[in-house]
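quick one: zinc ion bound model?
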Amino acid sequence: MALRTIRISGDPVLTRKCREVKEMTPRLAELIDDMFETMYEENGVGLAAPQVGILKRICVIDTTGETPLVLINPVITEKDGEQTGDEGCLSLPGKAAPVTRPMHVVVEALDREMKPVRLEGEELLARAMCHEIDHLDGHMYTEFAVGPVHDVVYEEEEEEQEEEA
Ligand code: ZN
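yep, here:
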């Protein structure tokens, strides 16, 4: 496993639409491992392949530190409710802005064995799923912000609670 370089907002790779994954390969399996390692290293709760420069429909999410999820070719099939709160992104370090997202989503995707899975997300997980899937279509959360993008300074003891994705 290895850390990958996170692309920063302004990099054109973050505005491109990603391609579907047709089959798992050793190279993609390594990419997924590297994405998890990079996400945990940066205290993120999610990371999408284009954020490390790969235009494939793959995201990794872990909102608890103990529930790693791999989403390949994910599609949101149900949305309910609404939540508005600050969101951050590893591709826009030190910034956050309020975004309105569904409170509950259902996502259909493939897991790392390319088996179909149906995942439900509430609250932060629903937010992370929407945020990461947006990356696969070339969108940053700032496009959907309902308030100003502002600076965020995390205290050392709060680092575990960062919600950058
Ligand atoms: Zn992001």
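The mean pLDDT is 95.
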